[in-house]
């Protein structure tokens, strides 16, 4: 048998050497060109090479920013060039070979095809890993200021594409367009934030006990990163991994969610246009169950990061443990909301409705268990139901829609099961409770449950659904006991006007994040992550880059 490559696949030695030589030459050439230097923070494109994309430039006066309408991924006539829906390896969109498999991305609203995507094959996986391995030393050796310029350029590209990219995101994932545009802009924020963090990777000098010794601690990139993200925020969740990893100096091989891979592809195209050297980023679309095995078992990969469910997290952790690989996991959540009787009940109820049914409840940090102090229970419930019934269910591209469809019929079935279990155990459906047959099989009416109890699945299992159970409580201790009774610990929320209650609740909640009188937790400048079965590691803030760095201790003494 011949030699086996980094991914455990047979390779030709001569071919491998030629690939390595080509990759090194490409990296050096890309770094020598450094197109981002021409205009810091603004994408600068060689128009001779990219003339086919110059039909529309946005915003005015910024050279080379391409409207996503020019790379429309929809099936049917396109306004211009189309974004290739295929693996992205060595800085190029790979043309699918003969017999290559593909899959269709469907619009959750009506099941219509959005795009046909070529799935990554074994050769794509091997090339992605080999090129990332080659790129690791080059990208790590690129100065933090230069990496920052690339990331800033990526942010500029994304902001220029925000509306059109939001349309692509809405079509593949289903969320209302306003929420999709916000997600693209929030993704740009991630690259903007980590552009600054790339320049602030500090080491330290430690005073030594022994005279003549000089102790240094330096921070270095962990190495090649394997990233897996989820479909509910297909752009933002990928950006939360790409931005800090690239800022730290790590190449990334990312497997996007097959339900909504196009947004990750748009991020890759933005990186390409920003001047990211070939090999530093690879996108491998396809079945994550098939792709994860060769990627995770490759000795090239030194870091694994996932946003996904707890069961998937357990599987990836097991594989990563076999290779002693660093991991960070952002897993499930079941966020409690503690509403005390001293608040403006109607205002809080309205805020909670907007937060709960955002993205049809398919949010890991979604407020999903509403504990209301008994004195405010009736008023809160009435207003919560009234505000819920005002929400308009509809296609994400309809500007009048407040709530879009669930991602697929599996989520519909899971939601129906939660409600049936709750009703069977004594809960009351106060509004909603099923699909809207006039809209389609994936449009589930926002649902409110009264008389919920802790024995119901909707109180113990992560719902990921437009279902809101309301439960009374009497004291802070009662609320904390119920809130902490689940294995999740991602987000929690407290509404009160009393500082003593706010402090007691915030300190007593077992969660990685607590919002006091707000549901706004996801922001680039703050660390996002959980405790218990919700995972470990942080994304965002100064903490987010730490998961992609390792500390090296150097003790130097004078020459003997």
TrEMBL record:
The answer to whether UniProt assigns keyword Heme to this entry is no
Q: Which UniProt keywords apply?
A: Oxidoreductase
List the Gene Ontology MF annotations in alphabetical order.
Answer: succinate-semialdehyde dehydrogenase (NAD+) activity
Q: Report any one BP term from Gene Ontology.
A: gamma-aminobutyric acid catabolic process
Q: Which residues form the Aldehyde dehydrogenase domain?
A: 94-553
Which Pfam family, any one, appears in the UniProt record? Aldedh
Superkingdom per UniProt: Bacteria
Keyword Oxidoreductase assigned: yes
Q: Where is this region: Disordered?
A: 1-31
Where composition is biased (Basic and acidic residues), the residues are 14-25
Q: Which family does it belong to?
A: Belongs to the aldehyde dehydrogenase family.
What is the official name of this protein in its record?
Answer: NAD-dependent succinate-semialdehyde dehydrogenase
Organism name: Amycolatopsis acidicola
């Amino acid at each position: 048998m011949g030699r086996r490559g980094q991914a455990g696949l047979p390779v030709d030695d001569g071919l491998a050497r030629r690939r390595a030589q080509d990759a090194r030459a490409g990296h050096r050439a890309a770094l020598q060109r450094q197109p981002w230097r021409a205009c810091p923070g603004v994408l600068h494109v060689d128009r001779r090479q990219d003339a086919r994309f110059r039909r529309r430039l946005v915003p005015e006066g910024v050279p080379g920013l391409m409207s996503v309408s020019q790379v429309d991924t929809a099936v049917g006539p396109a306004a211009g060039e189309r974004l290739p829906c295929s693996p992205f390896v060595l800085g190029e969109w790979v043309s699918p070979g003969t017999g290559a498999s593909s899959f269709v991305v469907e619009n959750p609203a009506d099941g219509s095809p959005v795009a046909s995507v070529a799935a990554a094959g074994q050769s794509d996986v091997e090339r992605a890993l080999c090129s990332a391995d080659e790129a690791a030393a080059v990208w790590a050796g690129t100065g933090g200021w230069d990496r920052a310029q690339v990331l800033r350029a990526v942010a500029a590209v994304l902001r220029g594409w925000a509306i059109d990219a939001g349309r692509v995101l809405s079509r593949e994932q289903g969320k209302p367009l306003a929420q999709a545009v916000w997600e693209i802009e929030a993704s740009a924020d991630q690259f903007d934030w980590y552009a600054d963090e790339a320049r602030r990777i500090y080491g330290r000098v430690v005073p030594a006990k022994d005279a003549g010794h000089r102790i240094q601690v330096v921070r270095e990139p962990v190495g090649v990163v394997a990233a897996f993200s989820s479909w509910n925020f297909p752009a933002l969740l990928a950006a939360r991994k790409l931005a800090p990893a690239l800022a730290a100096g790590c190449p990334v091989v990312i497997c996007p969610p097959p339900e909504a891979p196009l947004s990750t592809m748009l991020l890759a195209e933005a990186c390409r246009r920003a001047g990211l050297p070939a090999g530093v980023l690879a996108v491998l679309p396809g079945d994550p169950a098939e792709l994860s095995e060769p990627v995770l078992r490759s000795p090239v990969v030194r870091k694994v990061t996932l946003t996904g469910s707890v069961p998937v997290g357990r599987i990836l952790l097991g594989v990563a443990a076999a290779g002693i690989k660093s991991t960070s996991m952002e897993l499930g959540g079941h966020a409690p909301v503690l509403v005390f009787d001293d608040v403006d009940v109607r205002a809080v109820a309205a805020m909670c409705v907007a937060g709960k049914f955002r993205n049809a409840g398919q949010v890991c940090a979604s407020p999903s268990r509403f504990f209301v102090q008994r004195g405010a229970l009736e008023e809160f419930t009435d207003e919560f139901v009234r505000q819920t019934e005002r929400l308009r269910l509809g296609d994400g591209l309809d500007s009048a829609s407040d709530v879009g469809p669930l991602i697929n019929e599996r989520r519909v079935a899971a939601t129906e099961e939660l409600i049936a279990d709750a009703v069977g155990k004594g809960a009351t459906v106060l509004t909603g409770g099923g699909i809207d047959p006039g809209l389609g099989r994936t449009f589930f009416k926002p649902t409110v449950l009264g008389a919920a109890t802790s024995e119901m699945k909707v109180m113990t299992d992560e719902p990921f659904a437009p279902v809101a159970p309301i439960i009374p409580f009497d004291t802070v201790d009662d609320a904390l006991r119920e809130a902490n009774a689940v294995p999740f610990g991602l987000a929690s929320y407290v509404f009160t006007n009393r500082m003593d209650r706010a402090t007691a609740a915030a300190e007593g909640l077992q969660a990685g994040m607590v919002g006091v009188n707000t549901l706004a937790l996801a922001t680039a400048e703050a660390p996002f992550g959980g405790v218990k079965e919700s995972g470990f590691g942080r994304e965002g803030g100064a903490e987010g880059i730490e998961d992609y760095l390792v500390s090296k201790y150097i003790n130097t003494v004078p020459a003997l």
